[in-house]
Amino acid sequence: MSAGLNLVLVGAVALFAVGAFALLARRSVIVMLLGTQFMFAAASIAFVAFGRFGLGARNQNAGAAMALFAGATAVAELAVGFGIATLIYRQHRSFVIDADGE
Amino acid sequence: MPLIGALPQPITSAPLVLFIYLVLILMVGSALASVVLRSTLYAVGAFVATMVLVALLYLAIAPFLLFAVQLLVVTTVSAALLIGLLRETTGLVPSTVGPVSREWIVGAAVAAALLALLGVILGATSWPNGLCCSIIVGFGATLTSTYVVGLAVLVVILASAALGTGLLLAGPTRPSGRGGASIRERGPRR
Predict the structure, then answer these.
(1) Distance from CA of A85 to the nearest CA of B (A)
(2) Is B59 exposed, middle or buried (0-12, 13-18, 19+ CB in 10 A)?
(3) If pLDDT is split at 50, 70 and 90, which confidence band does B122 have?
(4) Which of A40-44, B31-35, B111-115, B131-135 has the lowest average pLDDT?
(5) Contact call for residues B184 and B174 (beta carbons, < 8 A)
(6) What is the rounded CA–CA span in Å between residue B44 and residue B50?
(7) Is the CB of residue A65 less than 8 Å from the CB of residue B10?
(8) Which CATH architecture fits A5-92?
């Protein structure tokens, strides 16, 4: 029994799929924001896994550095999403966005 | 020198392998829960749990600095932003009114994120004058030498996000009362 690149990548793909599902299937702005965060986290995990186990293992810090940048960018994206979600709530008194509701 | 050397071996320590399996399963499960749950507050709680589990995964396979940043910066700031969003809109506790304005809350959250990021970089790397911890000096040196342009771009991105969020929230549409009409719809002031 061992844990290598394949196992961590499977976990990252599953997390990315959950995020994509939230982004595409849900109508709540907050849940969509959470979905984008999951997709960011999945990409970061893949970077770290390749840095630790894969072809980037000659410089293991490279994957961690990319994950750090992705995490900080995700926080910035969440801050902007916070502002957008607040505006949507002020306009519609709801977090639900719909094609009928503009 | 060959471009690709021998790949590192997978982790074979039984407790660590078990820990990674457990963290991955719980991580995907809590992420799924945060998407499926109908209560927004519970969804945010499951999201925070997912981010903590991602940090634990980093603890197993990545440098310690990444674990610390994920746990102290990304998770904390994300949770603060989401809880702030709920307080600004639907409200965690409807009867509670915050002592400061919403612009100050958002500004403080973004400023805390920037300061935390700066603090981690200052405390963990040899920049600018060697405050480093030996356990993560390699990662810090990589960040401040190989990826110094990336760090600069990151600062620009974070500053732009802070500015954009502030401008969005300071827009002309003012919040209405709980369940009431907006100020613009009430007509001119007398």
Answers:
(1) 8
(2) middle
(3) low
(4) B131-135
(5) yes
(6) 10
(7) no
(8) Orthogonal Bundle (1.10)
Kindly report the nearest CA distance between residue B129 and chain A, in angstroms.
21
pTM for the model stands at 0.69
* Interatomic CA distance for residues B79 and B73, integer angstroms: 10
The domain ranges of chain B are 94-171
Which residues are CB-contacts of B60 (< 8 A; sequence separation ≥ 6)?
B11, B16, B19, B20, B23
User: Which pair of tokens denotes residue B165?
Assistant: 């969020």
Contact across the interface for B158 and A75, Cβ inside 8 Å: yes
Helix (H/G/I), strand (E/B), else coil: A54: coil
Q: What is the DSSP string of B44-61?
A: HHHHHHHHHHHHHHHHHH
pLDDT digits (tens, 9 = 90+) for A39-71: 999 999 998 888 888 766 667 778 888 888 888
Q: Give the start-to-end residue ranges of the domains of chain A.
A: 5-92
Cβ contact (<8 Å) for B171 and A77? no
- pLDDT band per the 50, 70, 90 thresholds, residue B168: confident
At residue A28, φ and ψ (nearest 5 deg) are -80, 130
d(CA A47, CA A8): 10
Instruction: State residue B188 phi and psi, 5-degree precision.
Output: -70, 155
